[in-house]
Amino acid sequence: MAGVGTRGRRPGGVDTRAEIVTAARQEFAEKGYDGVTLRGIARVADVDPALVHHYFANGKEELFVAAMQLPFSPAERLPDVLAGGVDGLGERMARFFLSVWGDPQGREPFLAVLRAALTNEQAAAMLRGFVAQTILSRVAAALDVPPEERELRVEVAAAQLIGVAMLRYVLRIEPLASANEDDVVALVAPTLQHYLTPDL
Amino acid sequence: MAGVGTRGRRPGGVDTRAEIVTAARQEFAEKGYDGVTLRGIARVADVDPALVHHYFANGKEELFVAAMQLPFSPAERLPDVLAGGVDGLGERMARFFLSVWGDPQGREPFLAVLRAALTNEQAAAMLRGFVAQTILSRVAAALDVPPEERELRVEVAAAQLIGVAMLRYVLRIEPLASANEDDVVALVAPTLQHYLTPDL
Asked: How confident is the model at residue B4 (pLDDT cuts 50, 70, 90)?
């Protein structure tokens, strides 16, 4: 309970990082991903904004990942998926997605945010901004598709993967739930590839 | 409150149907779709099984639809989608699905069961059985695909649609959320068609 009873901005301490994360969780829930600023989180946490930058050098994305206890940030893992360009991108996306969701510990935090998004609009707004800005826009930027189609194509590709997660890991409908990963990849990777590279 | 205090099996009355529906809801939640019998529902509702048949001539599917307040049963609407055979089936599925989910009143009961399925395993088991038996198996039976691939193909097609529903109507990610229905159909119908008729 260090810091309790202390007024004014506190210096960094053992639980300062945790308090910033708690403040971030509250701010994301209230304002959505797009509406949150690091300065606003610092204010709620009652710390100097420089401390927020100190603990979360990668900014809002890293704060959201910490607040939602996600196992990694898109900034950490997407570059590998996107490296190598659009050739084979559908298969790399499918394999990466299935490897994350195939791990019960890995999928739980994602399920939690999805569950919240289905339950209230604030949580939906929060997840919407995060997914759009940290995942979909990065994939869209990698595509060689006219700008007016790019985002829609990335979104229907993402929809394919999210739907597979719902049926395979949440509803656990057979045979999809027990199908081996290669068979699922063989079915959905060409679909993703077609959405992402319509001319190839 | 007619019937309260009356012991033994009650005859059909103004609220008998409602009591059967309440009993059905409880039984589906406890036993999953597959584990429920009309006889078991009659026992919980404390009515003669013949009365359950009287009110729900189409059996378990109709009881589930009433219990979950779904706007229609697959038995009522799927025949139209499947009529005409596999030719154009992807487009008819996409249009039907989007028309149901595009209506806020229409999608609410489906969202409710999906939300429950994300929250607890009993609700997931209930929805799993219903979807598998009343939707997926009917679509699978209409396909000209080797039996060992049929269900998996229907499931990844269903996954595409459910994922679109999540991103378009729940997360409301743009541009997908505001895209007109024809543009969404133009993107996903060929995917569905490819899953359902791989050789065409």
From this structure: very low
The more confidently predicted of residues A14 and A170 is A170
Which is nearest to B98 in space by CA: B2, B194, B184, B15? B184
Question: Considering CB atoms only, which of A114, A159, A170 is closest to B124?
Answer: A170
Question: Looking at the partner chain, which of B128, B152, B183 has a beta carbon nearest the beta carbon of A171?
Answer: B128
Q: Token pair for residue B62?
A: 């109709």
User: What's the pLDDT tens digit per position in A136-183?
Assistant: 999 999 999 998 899 999 999 999 999 999 999 999 999 999 999 999
Whether the Cβ atoms of residue A89 and residue A193 lie closer than 8 Å to each other: yes
For residues B70 and B84, the answer to whether their CB atoms sit within 8 Å is: no
Please tell me the pTM assigned to this model: 0.90
Contact A152 B118 (CB under 8 A): no
Structure confidence by residue, pLDDT tens digits, B149-161: 999 999 999 999 9
What's the rounded Cα separation, in Å, for the pair B145 and B135? 17
Burial class (CB in 10 A: 0-12, 13-18, 19+), A100: middle
**B97-110, pLDDT tens digit by residue?**
999 999 999 999 99
Q: Which positions 95-124 of A are in contact with B (Cβ < 8 Å)? A: 111, 114-115, 117-119, 124
pLDDT for res B5: 45
Secondary structure of residue B81 in the 3-state scheme: helix
Predicted local distance difference test score (pLDDT) of residue B1: 43
For residues B199 and A25, give the distance between their C-alpha atoms in angstroms, rounded to a whole number. 50
End-to-end CA distance of chain B: 59
How far apart are alpha carbons B168 and B183 in whole angstroms?
A: 13
Give the residue from A59, A51, A65 showing the smallest Cα distance to A12.
A51
